[in-house]
Design goal:
Largest sheet: 2 strands, parallel
Order of helices and strands: EEEEEEEEH
Number of helices: 1
Strand content: 15-25%
Radius of gyration: 20 Å
Strand order of the largest sheet: 1-4
Structural class: mainly beta
Number of strands: 8
Oligomer: single chain
Helix content: under 10%
Shape: elongated
Length: 156
């Protein structure tokens, strides 16, 4: 997973937090999840209700493509925005449709691991209650690179 943690132990008070790019502009990472640990065994600390995270506004049009294709119909220079839960993802040069590049997982060992993307958390809230449809072309190969003929998604 590609993620970063920003931990902070703060004394009692009220705080605001925001994400700023190298030019000083307020930005929002694609995926943000607040996670609060157990409070400390002492007094005088800030709690989650004392901290406000500032989020730039998001509009419907900027959320039209929740799953970002990343140019999978062309030559790829990186696997972004794709990630893999365990252990890796990379560009499969020439492995796509009509010899185009594709995204491939590497060294997959468990049935519960797989390819994915982080989705902008602001869009999820904006589109609450809506249904989405997507399509994908998948090529499954065995460990020798041959087409997989027997696929059991429940096999460990």
């Amino acid at each position: 997973w590609k993620y970063m943690k920003f931990p902070a132990s703060l004394p009692a008070g009220t705080y605001t937090a925001e994400f700023i790019d190298e030019n000083g502009n307020q930005v929002w990472p694609t995926f943000v999840e607040e996670k609060w640990e157990n409070p400390p065994d002492c007094s005088g600390y800030a709690s989650s209700s004392d901290i406000t995270i500032l989020k730039p506004e998001v509009s419907g049009p900027s959320c039209d493509e929740l799953v970002r294709n990343g140019g999978q119909d062309a030559s790829l220079v990186s696997s972004d925005p794709w990630l893999h839960t365990h252990p890796g993802v990379e560009v499969g040069v020439g492995m796509g449709i009509n010899g185009s590049d594709a995204i491939k997982t590497t060294n997959r060992k468990y049935h519960w691991t797989g390819l994915g993307q982080n989705i902008d958390t602001r869009c999820i809230k904006l589109m609450e209650g809506q249904y989405f449809e997507f399509s994908a072309r998948i090529k499954m190969l065995d460990s020798s690179g041959n087409p997989a003929t027997v696929v059991d998604p429940n096999r460990e």
